[in-house]
Amino acid sequence: MIDLKDYLNPVSLESPEYIAGDAGFPHSISVHTDSTTLKDISKYKIALLGVPEGRNSPGKGSEKGPDSIRAELYRLARIPGKSRIIDLGNMKKGVTFNDTIAGLTDMLTLLIGENIFPVIIGGSSSLAIAVDNALSNLKIKYTLAAVDAKIDYTSEKKNPDSFSYLNSILHNHKSTFSHYINIGYQTYLNDQQVVNRFLKRKSELVRIGDVRKAIYLTEPLLRDSDAAFFDISAVRQSDAPGTICPSPNGFYGEEICLLARYAGISDNLKLFCIFDVNPELDIRNQTAGLAAQILWFFLEGFSQKQYEAPLLGSSNSGRFIKYHVRITDLEDDLIFVKSNLTDRWWMELPSGDDKFSYIACSHEDYLKANHNEVPERWVLGNQRIK
Hints:
single chain, about 375 residues, alpha/beta, ten-stranded mixed beta sheet, four-stranded antiparallel beta sheet, 11 helices, about 30% helix
């Protein structure tokens, strides 16, 4: 068991930027300060963890992101309900970037292994390597959902950084990475060869325009993911100027917060990260303020979470309704499962030995099947299982 104090710098609540009103965010959580001990964190469900690391990134100022975001987060209202959240403070910065990655890997392996949900406040997205290391150490075959304007992969041979962390993950033979989802990529910012490479891998890539037409269709994508990375550059520059690669186009603040809430209510998610806020490029803390609200909506969604996925295989729970849909040219019916409590939908797929896997889907997928059309999520899910 690692000693957390060897890895963490506590939060100083006496700092003027962290002082909140009586109904403020810090009053609904526990905070690791100089006067508190960290002997037993098993009673907590969520752990906030700042990682002030900007090396291996063109945006060096992102190392100041965690403190800037935390200052804005502490000014927000408390999270409804009893969420059992602890703010662990900031990771101690390693002598080298790889030292930071090793320390963060240890922390995430411990937290996820103890069934505590880590929320990483970055720092740059190059920290994703530690996420891959931790999930791979725990033998978790995982799906990664990135809300990002770019697919962070390059065909060039160079040291991986915040724009190419997927290179490290894909080329790591020990990695348990399984499936990639990108929500909100912008075509004109991405190399088409990279896009084609990920489409060949059966990745699910959803352009910004398609997301904005029907943003609710992203909820099943996040519901089936194990890790969610939110890069602040996915937001348009007018709403979030404080990042190294802003774009005139992107999500509005309200939209990115809704996506964060979808991630919060996900049954399957094991880790949430927000990356690449650069206070040195910010205007009146606007980007840090939005990042804080993204975290707030994620935590609010988490507090409303309904753990339905473990119950899907139970035919006697009375919580679900099964629908069998016959489609021409398919041997077996498509089986859809709907929750009576949340109105969420899944597709049931056979995975061998009389066992079944469940793929999150939408009501629209069910309607497509009723019009004799095989939903794309069923095709991709079936290919991954086989």
